[in-house]
């Protein structure tokens, strides 16, 4: 998954949804303080054709009806606008905490801004028909009176002169060095709109009143004119689109148009019947436009759009007179700024309507004027009546949302095609009255790096007690092939009863797969304010390490690489809005470093919350191993590593185990490792002697024990677990791998588990993706561990995807014993399953115990570690039947 994200191609909606979105009507009164808090549609039960986002408005205190012909995004993230109605130039700080405003001379009405590299601005004034030069650092304003009528905007030439298309139809050339205006006129032009200056010196503009497109020669004395098919369409803004063609908004006809100057061909695209498209911007291959009727922002996809009209236009030659040169006297004044905190409306979720050609997102606050895209900080800014708003990714809906932080349906490095399969389970808790309910589930991909406008989605139902397995839903039902990001599952009923599991993998020609699996997580696995989480990079530098995070709450912090000795080698500060997904492939490349064996990828959060993720990918097999994030609460003085092996175990005779230990304390740690060999039901008892070893882990350092069972313990042909005991809390992680016959390795990651991950009496450990589908397809091995000094009695229950009990078996584990049950479903039920639910239930008064499952693809040999959901045992468990101990093995 290291290939750069290509242009996603969303599935076209079957019907045209209404583009009339819910927006707040803003009363025509001068004070924003009188405007009620914006109201937005609820995302609950979202239809898959509706793409959510969120908006946040930074209202101008004591402001009125703001307008802004354009927004200017400065390199430092500050946002600038000018308002003719309010007669000010305003600056919003990058963090959104401060407005600075400069009141202009009476009736100046500043409109369009042009930023210079030194931080000064050129601007047009619509009230006094002037051109201004404004220096925010000093407040100095220099104004030159313009003899024509209402300059729309400015385009600066390399020689320092500025073109000004005028609404009177005049084209003006302003020379600030000579204080002169040169006016170019012709009877063929009625009113010029906003300019586009090309590198060759030609200037594009449109005739807003007569419906014409014009290209002026660099000297302004001649032009080409194309009459548009609809002369009443009111062409407004023009820019070069992502495809290199000219695009323009047709304000009065609710259309966008694409014009190819080389062929004179125009294509017109209908946006609906009730839009007034105004400003334009480019974003990830889309064309953004602001809509002044509905107060919304549109995302138009030119690759999938079908024009309503295609026509070849005939160019006409136009000659202009350019001998009217006037020298003017500038006037200088000094403006005094005022500073105040904005009226900050919290981010709220909005819904975007999807049509055949575009997505339109409600802004929530009336008219939308200028646009500015800040991809560095993940924001789309827009000017609106009450101030400046920002379009953000969709915020999480509830604390019960489930997340798969790394999901994909995309081609990757070495030609592999990654897909993501999911399994969802409805626990089906019986309410006090009535029956358990079906859970409608909305699934949504939050694409990597996207702010808004693209969010593949679908919906499905999960009946009480049942499992639903979905294979590559991102690339199929959700309509999002060639995409990756975070997968979010929202339960629209009884959210505490929904559980999820996912596997990201790629498939060989013979059907065998390499991948990694994990349970879907909630906000409790987030790194929060003032906390630090990390991943262990692999000991082998040839492994590719991808890492990133999904933002749950507006987050600021630092991503860092720390070497095994504790030295920070590189860092990257970040500030991202809630709903943002970011992945670095590889994370070392992203921070400008070579791969560092056993380094830590560190996520430091100053504010907000994020879900970190990572995976290492073998260069030969392309097998990914889940680098389970380590959070502050995961360190301990007693923890366990399960499903390990050396020459034996679920991965077969070539298995080896590498262990990584991190000491985050201020003093060195003494760590004792005790290996406990597992037995099988029919195998011999393991040796009574327990091999042990003690290692020292310096403060802030990582110690890697390569091939720990062979090199440290001198063992071979063994499988089992390691007790990790230390005098100060440490983090532990293991990588269990085996060689692939074609070269490289495959395997799974094992996080150190604390006692709170065990299954106590009165609870059950639930695995929702157990598979035994044939000796040569997929097989699941159950491992049970008793950490106690007394025997533990338990029952393993099997329940089909249709919530039917299919078998159970009781076990007694002796003190400190680990039991392996290969092909556990078949061993208990006597038949196989593609997906089933396995429950491990300690007897009342017995326990606690640990349970893990290794789900292995028998074609490739690759395996995934599954951990259970630990849940309260219902009062009257269903699904218990007499043990089944015989039957033909599936696929044999």
Walk me through what this model shows.
It is a single chain. This protein has three helices and 65 strands. With 892 residues, the protein is mainly β. Strands 22-23-24-31-30-1-34-33-32 form a nine-stranded antiparallel sheet, with no helix packed on it. 54% of the residues are buried. Mean pLDDT is 89; it is low at 1-48 and 877-892.
Strand content: over 45%
Major pleated sheet = 9 strands, antiparallel
Under the CATH scheme, which class of the largest domain? Answer: Mainly Beta
Total domain modules: 4
Task: Give a topology summary.
Elements lengths: L50 E9 L11 E3 L5 E5 L4 E5 L6 E5 L6 E6 L5 E5 L4 E6 L4 E6 L9 E2 L5 E4 L5 E5 L4 E6 L10 E2 L5 E5 L4 E5 L5 E6 L7 E6 L5 E5 L4 E6 L4 E6 L6 E7 L2 E6 L4 E5 L8 E4 L2 E5 L1 E7 L3 E4 L2 E4 L2 E12 L3 E5 L5 E7 L4 E6 L2 E6 L9 E10 L5 E10 L12 E9 L9 E6 L4 E5 L11 E9 L6 E10 L5 E7 L12 E5 L7 E19 L5 E9 L4 E5 L1 H4 L9 E18 L6 E3 L9 E11 L9 E8 L5 E9 L1 E2 L11 E6 L3 E5 L2 H5 L5 E22 L5 E7 L11 E10 L5 E8 L6 E9 L4 E9 L4 E4 L2 H6 L3 E10 L7 E8 L5 E4 L2 E4 L20
Parallel strand pairs: 52-61
Antiparallel strand pairs: 1-30, 1-34, 2-3, 3-4, 4-5, 5-29, 6-7, 7-8, 8-9, 9-28, 10-11, 11-12, 12-13, 13-27, 14-15, 15-16, 16-17, 17-26, 18-19, 19-20, 20-21, 21-25, 22-23, 23-24, 24-31, 30-31, 32-33, 33-34, 35-36, 35-40, 36-39, 36-41, 37-38, 37-40, 41-42, 43-47, 44-45, 44-46, 44-47, 47-48, ...
